[in-house]
């Protein structure tokens, strides 16, 4: 963990309609994960602000209603294990970001929805869902 520079809050969105279409056609569905604005991230959080990343609370509201709430205590793999595993497959460099998953409660959002999410009382993000 000495090499961890800090943390961010990220919201890894998926366009399920694009994903379903690509899957049904036997095509890669990476576009469903990599569209414009698909992964908003917070500002950088120095690791000193999160002394124990294995015990932080995460939450997400849509239009003020709680949709996701969880804790990193529920992670299947620890952060040190994930870093070790990933670094055996690819080179990790300063500034790289590792996203680790999401609490239960994944669901659809539509144009006009307001999403707010956060890490404990450390940081939060708020934005509007807009579609073309």
From TrEMBL:
Keywords: Metal-binding. Signal peptide: none annotated. It comes from Phallusia mammillata. InterPro entries: Fumarylacetoacetase-like_C (IPR011234), Fumarylacetoacetase_C_sf (IPR036663). It catalyses: a 3-acylpyruvate + H2O = a carboxylate + pyruvate + H(+); 3-fumarylpyruvate + H2O = fumarate + pyruvate + H(+); oxaloacetate = enol-oxaloacetate; acetylpyruvate + H2O = acetate + pyruvate + H(+). Residues 1-129 form the Fumarylacetoacetase-like C-terminal domain. One of its GO terms (cellular component) is mitochondrion. GO terms for molecular function: acetylpyruvate hydrolase activity; acylpyruvate hydrolase activity; metal ion binding; oxaloacetate decarboxylase activity; oxaloacetate tautomerase activity. This is Oxaloacetate tautomerase FAHD1, mitochondrial. The keyword Kinase does not apply. The keyword Metal-binding applies. Its EC number is 3.7.1.5, 4.1.1.112, 5.3.2.2.
């Amino acid at each position: 963990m000495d090499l961890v520079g800090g943390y961010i809050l990220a919201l890894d969105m998926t366009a399920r309609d694009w994903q379903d279409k690509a899957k049904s056609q036997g095509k890669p569905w990476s576009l469903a994960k990599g569209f414009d604005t698909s992964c908003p991230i917070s500002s950088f959080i120095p690791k000193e602000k999160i002394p124990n990343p294995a015990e932080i609370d995460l939450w997400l509201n849509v239009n003020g209603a709680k949709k996701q709430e969880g804790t990193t205590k529920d992670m299947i793999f620890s952060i040190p294990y994930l870093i070790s595993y990933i670094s055996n497959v690819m080179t990790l460099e300063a500034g790289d970001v590792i996203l680790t998953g999401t609490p239960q409660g994944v669901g659809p959002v539509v144009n006009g929805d307001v999403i707010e999410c956060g890490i404990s009382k450390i940081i939060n993000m708020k934005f509007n869902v807009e579609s073309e």
